[in-house]
Description:
Helices cover 35% and strands 27% of the residues. The protein has helices at residues 16-32, 39-44, 50-55, 68-75, 86-92, 107-126, 183-189, 235-239, 242-246, 262-265, 272-288; strands at residues 5-9, 35-36, 57-62, 80-85, 144-149, 152-157, 161-163, 168-173, 176-181, 192-196, 203-204, 209-215, 219-223, 228-233, 255-259, 270-271.
Amino acid sequence: MTAKYVILPCNGLDKEAGCLARELALKMAAATGSEIICPVLYQTAPSRYASLLREGSLVVIDGCATRCASRIAANNNLKIYRKITMTEEAKKRDYNPGPDWRVGAGAAAFVEDVWRSWQPVLREQEAGRAPGENAGLFAGPLEYAIHRHDKFIFRVPLEGFYFNENDCWVQVEGNRGRVGISDYLQQNLSDITFVTPPDPGTEVEQFGEMGTIESAKAVYELVSPVTGRVVAVNEAILEAPELINENPYEKGWIAELELTNFEADREFLLDGRRYMEVLKEKVADFNAGK
């Protein structure tokens, strides 16, 4: 690999997951000639890394669900090119990071396997491709059906979208699918403050977990409407999660997948018109329970 990156790793060296993040950062830096940002130094002297961040693509490596490195990036309005979470990588490989700084016997092999699996994803940049480069595939602006209840207005796209009953959608073009949450769900969650999308390269099953959304009210686990491999995430929502509240179907999409079983998946999904009927029932039931 020839592309160079700017790597921001987790600083939680009191736990194995943080140590693994550091080891992956060192391996990536050595293999690509990239630079590592010290998270502690960055927070005290950010100007030290300003030129590096202007010139290179930022790869964030979180140790665990605390996402300290991602939060540093978000708090400083840094654009994330790719994000890796070591505990998520561990789940895929049945590796169990310990509770303290001691690194397990299989740590070196684990880090090597994580690095090997991420190389094809990172090569997208070397080939001149950027996350979400298929934006032109997905039609917009969209035509919506509208349901009004009291002061609330709920929108559902009429064409090209399929929904599960967990209020997540997929917009399909060829073998690609863009996924997100419905207008109904974003209004129920209220002000969205943080998004953890699935990592590029992740294999997702229909009705499996596809990241989380945090709001002032709750943490919501996204339920994938389709089966496939994540090929891109919407970087805009990492910097501005409120886009999901403002425009969940166009600007606030969450990830793009290469679909692997859509014909079978579609049997368990609702088109826009059928989902609108489900939405009306949910709104009525919610208000009846007040």
